[in-house]
Amino acid sequence: MQQLDLNDEKIRSLINERTKRLSEVGSIRDTYSEDLNLLCFLVKDEVWAVPISQVKEIFPFSGATLIPGAPGYVIGLTNLRGAVLTLVDISQMIGVGSTDSLNGSQVIVADVADIDIAFVADKLVDIVRVPRSSVEQPLWILDKVEGDFVVGEATIAEQLIGILDVNRIFSSKVGDQNAGRK
Amino acid sequence: MSFDIDSSFIETFKEEAAERIENLTNLLIRFETEPDNDDIMSEIKREAHTLKGSSKMVGLSEVSDRSHQMENILIELYEKKIDHGLAMTQVFSILDEISESLGFPRRGAPEEINVAVTSEAETGSTSGIGEGDEGVQNSAIGGPAGASSSTGTAEAQDGAQAENDQQETRSAAQAGLAKSGETMRVSISKIDKLINLTGETIIYQIQSLDDVGRADELSRQSRRCFSSFQDLELMLSRLGSMNGTRDAVVGQLAALKEHLRTLNHESLEFYRDLKSAYSKRDFLTRELQQTALSVRMLPVNSIYGMFPRAVREMAQRTLKEVSLVLNGGEIELDKKILESLVDPLVHIIRNAVDHGIEAPEVRMQNGKPKIGTLTISALQRGDHVELIIEDDGRGIDPEKLRRVAIEKQMIRPGDEPTREELINLLFRPGFSTSTMITDISGRGVGLDVVKKNLEELNGTVSIVSEEGKGTTFTLKIPFTLAITRVLFIRVSDEMFALPTTSVEETIRISADEVRTLQNKETVHIRDNTIPLASLSFVLGLSSEASVKRRAGKLPLVILRRHDQVLGLVVDELIGEQEVVVKNLKPPVDQIKEVSGATILGDGTVVLILDLSNVLERTRGMEDQISAAISEAEGEKKGAAKVLIADDSLITRELVRNILVTCGFEVDVAFDGIDAFEKALQKRYDLLLTDVNMPRLNGIDLTKKIKRDKKLGSTPVVIVSSKESNEDRLLGIEAGADAYITKGNFDQGDLLEVVERLIGR
Q1: Is B494 at the interface with chain A, CB within 8 A?
Q2: Residue B344, preceding peptide bond in cis (omega within 30° of 0)
Q3: What's the CA dihedral at B171, B173, B178, B179 to 10 degrees?
Q4: Which helix (H) or strand (E) holds B74?
Q5: Of the candidates B412, B677, B676, the residue with the CA atom closest to the CA atom of residue B689
Q6: Among residues B690, B692, B695, B668, which one has the least CA distance to residue B679?
Q7: pLDDT along chain B (760 residues), means of 10
Q8: CA B509: distance to chain centroid?
Q9: Contacting residues of B for A72, CB less than 8 Å apart
Q10: Do A77 and B590 touch (CB under 8 A)?
Q11: Closest by CA position to B695, among listed B732, B653, B647
Q12: What is the C-alpha separation between B141 and B753, in angstroms, rounded?
């Protein structure tokens, strides 16, 4: 992680925004619906999940245009019905290594404001519905990944699965990127 | 009434107020030149009154109080109870305060395109196009005293225009009140979405061209089927009958033939229909795209509006008298381009008023009209627009530029740059002539910023100036940024698009034409030495920096920016096409070398490179490239140092450029003495000297060097215009290692001799 300069206005506003979002949402558990729909997918042989509400669309990977000079976690650009979408390697973003092969993988388009971004999963596992009450604070997974991208963990089919918050991952990375560049 | 409705009222009011304020500003400026025109005055009072009324209605008390104050001043002015100049200053400052309290930027349009309202109303209020009127707006600007002595033509035009303007302004005001029916305000994001969708339609349209091709192939295929069937039929008819089997087969074949005939016919029809539908749709989609893009287009008038007042204020502050003429306001440009033009234009106008146009007394002494004229013209030229800013002031003094350039060490005291070269120095970063900085134009930004702004728009700027007569700036700007012509190329199996505006030419060279000099790969093309770089290495797609060992022909894209030239070696030149530009979004929008992307017919995304940044990056990587090449060559060597002694600037610079391009470190001396002194101070690997030089000539310099213990071993090359054998002999006797004549001067020869003598 790079050293954050707290006097930097961009970083400060980012932190403020993040604090605000945390206080609004608290954790995913607090939102009103009883159940939480999760999209489970495989990244580097591990199952991860994102709330389905944060997913716009899923389609099979069919190639990407390389961008010279882009950050390492950017795989490239792809065309989704005339829109240019940035593909990122989520395993690098959460710090669990990097994807080796993109063949046969799935593109998950994130629902993030003002950013056309999608991440690539090795394989889709399932869509499951879990009671919000069963979502625990992320204790076990926390030491495995970078930052506060894991917002909870749930036991599904006797397997402990980390739930990622797409918004936090992308806004933080994009923010870092811009702060680092200026 | 809920809060929401209130705030939407305020928004509507703001839109209206913005128009009113601009209208008021223009009217006030007109009034200054025609203080006795009561029609203008009453128009002004009416506008101010309406502003007061409507602001009161929506509850913006600050605005209504201010407008009230303004109204009072105007009444006092009308009754001649208050000094004209003072009143104007007060009214203008009140308008500023109102604008500020409404949160308007001091200039620049709100983030909306006011379709047709802006186009029509502003055309009306600022240029007043009428019959017999050539779309010329003319307002004499200066102190109140200057107004009455405005030039004859200006007055005549003003007079003819007053009436026109009056009507236009009135109808514009009415349009403002009852703007329903013909026009509506649309948010930019909707328009951009529309343009994007059109772009996508075009992409699919291009894709369907492939389908047409496939249908063509299909119909050819079925025709081939049919004709080979006919052959078969013929062959069969030559066979004898085989117990009636033949008849059965013939029957079957007849049926098959019918099917084939239908297939053949149908597929041909299908191809023709598809092709004609394609052509019609092609025409329509292009028309659709043009129309969608035209929605973003605004007349140049929409920025002209702010200049009369800006010029007026600058003229007052610098005690100049300036008449501003605005031409071609009806020509349209993309809104974003127009907005980006404001800063460069204001900069150029400031320069013109401040430095260009002389004080009235000086002008009269020089036999010029007392009032200076500043003309801004917009002209449509093929696929671009030209904006010409012309003043009839004192012009640019080349001597002054030379002094500053010497001071800033951009040229040497003995150099003889041409007038054009001197003027172009103005575009160099850091060439802010400190003696020229004043309150008006000296804001620490130089013309280099203007040039940069224009380059960002894919445009150019140039200056022509005649001393005593005036200065002309010409800005060339494309109509739109949404579509651009690109050259597709391929490197390391990736396709890229290069905007053709930055490409000078494309050419194929063979690998053995590449010369490696001082760890730099170069090629000679028509007497120019062009440094080469591998695009795939620059973009980090390949670790091979050298292009020399590639097989076959090397496709080369030659870029030129200012005085820099670079040959980018690519793997394949594919072709040119107009494409729809898509901007990239975070996190990949900050990559300097990439300006956007486009989508091909088959759906592939292709990056559009920003070539000026690619050039910049290549320069930054020079050391890295040299290191890689020297490693590839298997030898380590630093740049060899060469001293050039010549009293002619032209020869000196010519030779210097050739050697610098090839990676030599070059110093120059103005004569023999200078050269000898320099040689004593620093070790040179080679000395190139002219023969005829003041103080100490080349022959004597050679002798002196060769006799010197320390310098004796330095190779000396004499470059002379004397071709005779005696002269040559004289040179050799003096101890020169080589003698080159200028008459058959050839870059290749020179480089060969230099390389050989340095022995690397």
Answers
A1: yes
A2: no
A3: 90
A4: helix B61-78
A5: B676
A6: B668
A7: 50 77 82 79 82 75 83 82 80 83 57 43 37 39 38 40 44 43 76 76 75 86 86 77 70 84 88 89 84 84 86 86 90 86 87 86 89 91 84 84 77 74 76 46 59 80 86 85 82 88 84 76 81 86 75 84 80 81 78 85 84 82 74 60 84 80 82 86 86 85 85 84 77 83 70 73
A8: 29
A9: none
A10: no
A11: B647
A12: 65
Nearest Cα residue to B142 out of B345, B348, B306, B373: B373
Q: A10 vs B508, which has greater pLDDT?
A: B508
Enter the tokens of residue B560: 């030129």
Q: Which of B579, B540, B195, B597 minimizes the C-alpha distance to A64?
A: B597
Among the listed residues B551, B572, B549, B558, the one whose alpha carbon sits nearest the alpha carbon of residue B524:
B558
Long-range contacts of A108-111 (CB under 8 A, 24+ apart): A108/A39, A108/A41, A108/A50, A108/A55, A108/A58, A109/A55, A109/A56, A109/A57, A109/A58, A109/A59, A109/A80, A109/A85, A110/A50, A110/A54, A110/A55, A110/A56, A110/A166, A110/A170, A111/A53, A111/A54, A111/A55, A111/A56, A111/A166
ipTM above 0.95, yes or no: no
B517 forms beta bridges with B520
Neighbours of B2 (CB within 10 A): 7
Using DSSP bridges, classify how beta strands B738-741 and B716-720 pair: parallel, antiparallel or unpaired: parallel
Q: How far is CA B588 from CA A87, A114, B58, B584, in A?
A: 10, 13, 44, 6
CA–CA separation, B320 and B143 (whole Å): 8
Q: Which residue would you say has higher pLDDT here, A116 or B8?
A: A116
Rounded distance, CA B311 to CA B317, Å?
Answer: 10
Q: Does A4 touch chain B (CB under 8 A)?
A: no
Neighbour count for residue B605 (Cβ, 10 Å): 21
Phi/psi of residue A164, each to 5°? -95, 150
Distance from CA of A39 to the nearest CA of B (A): 24
Strand ranges of the sheet holding B494-499, from the earlier edge strand across to the other edge: B572-580, B483-491, B494-499, B605-609, B594-599
- CA-to-CA distance for A88 and A112, rounded, in angstroms? 14
Q: Any idea what DSSP says for residue A26?
A: S
Cα dihedral B485→B489→B495→B500 (10° resolution): -20
Q: Using a CB-CB distance cutoff of 8 angstroms, which residues of chain B are in contact with residue A181?
A: 590
- What interhelical angle do B152-177 and B3-33 show, nearest 10? 160
Interface of A with B in 60-99 (CB under 8 A): 63-71, 74, 76-79, 81-82, 84, 86, 88
Inter-CA distances, B747 with B296, B625, B649, B750, Å: 51, 23, 17, 5
**Helix ranges, B296-371 (H):** 301-304, 307-318, 335-351, 360-365
- Angle B89-B92-B93 (CA atoms, 0-180°, nearest 5)? 85
Residue A18 pLDDT exceeds 80: no
pTM of the predicted structure, to 2 decimals: 0.51
Q: For position B376, what pLDDT does the model report?
A: 94
Whether the CB-CB separation of B48 and B98 falls below 8 Å is answered with no
Q: What is the pLDDT of residue B436?
A: 45
The pLDDT of residue B150: 36
Answer whether residue A145 shows pLDDT above 60: no
Nearest residue of A to residue B197, measured between CA atoms: A82
